[in-house]
What we know:
Blueprint: H1 2-18, H2 22-32, E1 33-36, E2 39-42, E3 52-53, H3 54-65, E4 69-71, H4 79-85, E5 87-88, E6 94-97, H5 101-111, E7 114-119, E8 126-131, H6 137-142, E9 145-146, E10 162-168, H7 174-185, E11 195-198, E12 203-209, H8 210-223, E13 233-238, H9 244-269, E14 283-287, E15 292-297, H10 299-312, E16 323-327, H11 333-356, H12 363-367, E17 373-377, E18 382-386, H13 389-402, E19 408-432, E20 446-447, E21 453-455, E22 465-467, E23 474-478, E24 488-503, E25 506-510, E26 515-530, E27 536-557, E28 561-573, E29 585-597, E30 602-618, E31 633-653, H14 656-674, H15 676-679, E32 692-695, E33 704-707, H16 734-738
Parallel strand pairs: 4-8, 9-10
Antiparallel strand pairs: 1-2, 2-6, 3-5, 7-8, 10-12, 11-12, 13-15, 14-15, 16-18, 17-18, 19-20, 19-24, 19-25, 19-31, 21-22, 23-24, 26-27, 27-28, 28-29, 30-31, 32-33
Helix pairs in contact: 3-5
Amino acid sequence: MLLHALLLPTLLLSAPAASFPQEEAAESVSTAIQEEGAYITLKLDESRENGLSLSEFIKICQLNTGLNFTIDESQSANLSSQLDQKKLLLYGQKRIKKEDFYSFFQIMMKIHGFVCVQQGEGDLAVIVITADSAANSAMIKANTIFVDYQDVPKYSARPGTRIATVIPLKNADANDIATNLRSALAPPGSGSDSFMPLTQERAILVQGYGPAVAAGYRMIMVLDREPDVVEPVFRKIPLREASAEELAEMLSDLMENMTSQTEARGSRSNRNSSPAAVEIETHITPYPRENALIVTASPDNMEKVLDLIATLDVQIDKPETNFRVYQLQNINAKDLDEDLAKFLDKTQQAEEAVMRNSSAPGAQARRANQKVIVVSQEETNSLLITATRTKWGELERLLTVLDKRQPQVLIETALIEVSEDFSNEIGFEFANVQAPATDGSQRGFGFTSMGLTGVDASYQFGDPRLPDPTAAGITAGILDGTDLGIPFLLRAARTSNNANILSIPSVLVANNHGASVKSTDQVPRTTISTTGTGLVNSGNDGYEDAGIELIITPSISSGKFLRLAITLTVSSFRGEGANGGLPPKIERTLDTTVFLPDGATMWVGGIVRDDLIESESGIPYLSDIPVLGFLFGKQSDSNVKTTLFFFCTPRIMDDWDEMADITEGGKSRAAEVIGLDRLRQVDPDFSFDSPVDVILQEEEGPAIEGVLDLDSFAAPTFIREVGVIDAERVGADREQAQQ
């Protein structure tokens, strides 16, 4: 049995060789192969009919290499017949080194769809010829030969031998190399087996047929090289004109933007760069002591920095600055400061909101713009502004529009107040009061009180009542001579007050500004206090105002119309106060907003008041007696009528000549009131425009000199348009209006 077991493999291995006729095979081999020292020359028949079969070619390889071959018929039973039928067609003779014959053999077998799979190692190794098909892929992979990566080049000419190797990486990334080589060199359908990254080992597993593995090995050797290390460059760059601090900040921002853009482009092309390939960061530090820059950068970036410094470090005739001064001509700086600051803050907030939501290039750079700062300087009526050139240009145009001379408005008002106060009063008082009897007997008394008399507390006997000596009208009665009593008293009075008041306040005010005219009388307030001993003390407790107060704000609109916000307050004291105090105060207020045409006198408002008051006081029943009832009481009637009218005439003063003409007219009226000499204390150069005329007498006598009034012959200096005019003519001067 043991002998049988040993002989069986020998018979199986020698079985294919028995299929070759010994004589024909020897003849074919001697014809096809010729040895020439270290070389073998193949000269095959170039006809398909008489060509060398693959079976014969296997035998030739066996004879020249000493390797043992067998045929794999596990997947295909007719593999031997295929090898017999297929002819080796090679045009021209082939001269090969003897040690390379096995590689040439694999090339020719690979061309015809066969590969060589080694089974076993050393003396037990057998080369199995099998078809290169998917059915045999498991068996082929299972018998892959592991080769040291340094021996891989030896298999570059063995396309029929499947090998595997592990190539260590020194610099390249395993995942990156595997992905790229798999796309470039892996055969279709091989998946990820051909190039497998070993990340932790920093190596890559390569497997496949010899030429493919050798090609991958050579490419890895090329890619896995040490990158060019860029050494940073240090420079101290002196500046001649520019400031080191300012230029350092500017250059840092520029280089940062350039680096970020370069990195963004590089990340799209290569997201897994090795650490050695990281760009050297550029550092620019100012050195104020020597007004120089200390720069650390790569050689390429250093050249860029030097170019930028050469461009920026130049002499400037008028250095640019962000500090500005805007001299206001027509607007108060303090009034404009607050509104302008609010406007700029809201504008910047809106711009920052847009920048935060924007992903456009340059949005971050615009976001870092300097904030505009505005501070008012009251002494020079100027605005101190900090802004960039662009912002200053925008702000300057805005201030030019705002700082325009506004037309002024001359507001002439007339307040007419007519009042009539009428009152009648008549009353009777009776009394029967006697002194007490000396014998102690009782006596009756009686009296009526209608407010005509007062009680005298110091009088001990008889009737203690005394009439008011300050009462208006007539007071009459009967005086009892014995006890100085007043058994009968009559008072009758009539009061009538008429007032006709004309107030003409005028004021010149700028457009959209408020003006106030106030004319009041101050009346002292008196306080009266009584001490414990009966003494009366009086004192001053301030003043109470009464008069006219006008607050008006004009606003010029289109069409030569004006919007007037008017608040008119008229107050006065009327009547008599009690116990020496202030009389009753009457106040009337008018608050309105109206639209008036330029130069027109319009009635704005008024108040009409008519108060009729009738009062009676008397003895019940007796005062109701017809005809005689008034003798037992007091009757008073009062009628107060007040009529208030308010007129307003606004005039737009948009011409200096017109204002001068109105001023001259005002001076003339003032000269008529206070005299020319006193007016010249105000304006020494003032004189009447009317010429002095000399009127001669017909006969003898001195000439009469006087002022000839030619107002009725003089043409008006200005002809004003009132009502609605064309919008194009609003705000135009006289020459433009005439054109």
